[in-house]
Design goal:
Strand order of the largest sheet: 1-8-7-6-3-4
Distance between the termini: 34 Å
Strand content: 15-25%
Length: 201
């Protein structure tokens, strides 16, 4: 797994590079950690809908397209819940913590680009966006062109996680031990959730 702050704003540092041990802390969010004034809103057809969510969740996992892995990641994260591919609106008035997720194919990355443009333009509910998780769409190494495009798309999110293919999930085995990449990801998100205070509108 690779974790990046915004590559266009923040230069890589030893703390943000992949290491041989699990992370104990998470790099701070990149400068683009909130909507940007003057950002052009995407066309209505390219926007994800808003939906009032019931109950509480430590983080709302938003799959930006069908088959993104929204439910799978929500199951991995303690207290998380899927949003049904919609931006969550918390009835309590608190900003919902949101994690975007997509697949690493062109369809998934383009959908993530649209969702991040929607967020950056302010055309979403007010949320605390943690970052974007890109799940491999097939076994083996992701082609370089798609990896590069994922890094570019991830430049519009506070953080980017690139997560590998998990073969047992393909066969319905959700109990297989998680590899180091996913353990690191879970640790990162848990740290963000427990150290970032929840804010109100």
């Amino acid at each position: 797994m690779e974790l990046f702050p915004n590559p266009w704003i923040t230069a890589p540092t030893p703390e943000t590079q992949e290491s041989d041990t699990l992370a104990t802390d998470v790099p701070a969010a990149a400068v683009i950690s909130a909507p940007l004034r003057g950002m052009v809103e995407p066309d209505t057809a390219d926007r994800l809908e808003h939906r009032t969510v019931n109950g509480a969740a430590s983080v709302w996992v938003l799959g930006v397209h069908g088959g993104a892995g929204e439910s799978r990641l929500a199951d991995l994260l303690d207290g998380a819940a899927p949003t049904g591919h919609c931006w969550p609106v918390a009835p309590s008035g608190a900003k919902a913590r949101v994690l975007l997720v997509c697949r690493s194919d062109m369809r998934g990355l383009t959908a993530a680009q649209r969702a991040l443009t929607q967020w950056a333009s302010g055309a979403t509910p007010e949320v605390d966006l943690l970052g974007l998780a890109v799940l491999a769409d097939a076994p083996g190494k992701t082609p370089k062109a798609l990896r590069d495009f994922a890094s570019i798309i991830g430049g519009g999110a506070p953080r980017l996680w690139l997560l590998p293919w998990v073969e047992p999930w393909r066969h319905g085995d959700t109990t297989a031990p998680l590899n180091r990449d996913y353990q690191r990801f879970i640790t990162d998100v848990t740290t963000l959730v427990t150290t970032t205070p929840r804010t109100t509108l």
